[in-house]
Amino acid sequence: MVAQMVGLVLLMRYSRTVESVDGEMYLASTAVFAMEAMKFLICNVVILYQVDGSVVALGEQLYFHVFQTPFEVVKLFVPSLLYTVQNNLLYLALTNLDAATYQVCYQLKILTTAVFSAVMLNRKFSAKKWFALVMLTVGVALAQNSGSGDSHTNRHGAEAEEQNRFVGLVAVLCAACTSGFSGVYFEKILKGSSVNLWIRNIQMGLPSVLIAFTGIYVKDSAIVAAKGMMVGFTPLVWTVIFIQAAGGLIVAVVVKYADSVLKVFAASFSIVASCIVSVFLLDFRPNLSFCFGTVLVCLSIVLYSRPDKIRRKRRILPVNRSG
């Protein structure tokens, strides 16, 4: 999971700062569509494995849970739309932010998830968790305002660089909001149903593929008509798409065979690893403010993930008055 998180961010950042052999930059919209289609295929392969490789059984599962329950698919249209928008925003963010700053700022999705959980699921948080969320916000603010960058940061002057960082920051903040809302919405649907998780992913994946395909022609129809959908695609781009598509599968495996706390530690370690690798491979230049902000973010993630201690009521024994 750490390798997936670090590799995805660094490779995505690198792929958005170098041109392909033919000098063309690939389209984020087509990359999102390819990723959604690949993720949908992976979910079908997992279901096929669960039904002992029976294509007939897979067809029956899809017919019952997709075609006979269209309302369930419609309910998942909202998170499907938001996840597609979120993935496009991540490409925009990594086009304008260095990998390390992106990794730190994107952890604000923990804050947005907590806020939406409190509003939509009436979930209560302890003072310790709210303190961790405040620490997270301060850490992200320090990291973002540090001015750190890598060798691929815009070289057309300080004003253009600052403008790019602002665009990247807005993109990552919007991505954190869509991630928080769609995650809580999806959790609410999952907890109110006994449907298999992978079936739910297929139900959500179908509209995601259609929305992503529509997004290509809404955003980049002229370029696609002139140069085709696969313009700028290289083995590096396909690697990024595969790693991103496999991310959900890896998280599911970690949660199943380990636990959520280990997943949080993996997320914290991936931030540190991204910073270290960026220093050597992308000539990332962190300063003291960025390092302090990163430490606060990692500490906040660990503190937030720790379970709250349950206060036990003292048992008062009856007094024996008989002597």
Quick structural gist:
The protein has about 325 residues and is mostly helical. It is about 75% helix and about 0% strand. The longest helix has about 35 residues, at about 160-190.
What features would you highlight for this structure?
single chain; 323 residues; mainly alpha; 14 helices; 0% strand
Describe the protein in words.
This protein has 323 residues and is mainly alpha-helical. The chain has one domain (2-19, 72-305). The protein is 74% helix and 0% strand. It has helices spanning 2-15, 28-50, 55-67, 70-75, 77-96, 99-105, 109-120, 127-144, 158-191, 197-219, 221-227, 235-257, 260-281, 288-305. The N and C termini lie far apart (65 Å).
SSE order, one letter for each helix or strand:
HHHHHHHHHHHHHH
Proportion in β-strands: under 5%
Number of helices: 14
The best one-word shape is globular
The whole-number mean of residue pLDDT values reads 78
The total domain count is 1
Low-pLDDT residue spans: none
Distance between the termini: 65 Å
Major sheet description: none
Question: By helix and strand content, what is the structural category?
Answer: mainly alpha
Rg, nearest Å: 22 Å
What is the quaternary state of this protein?
single chain
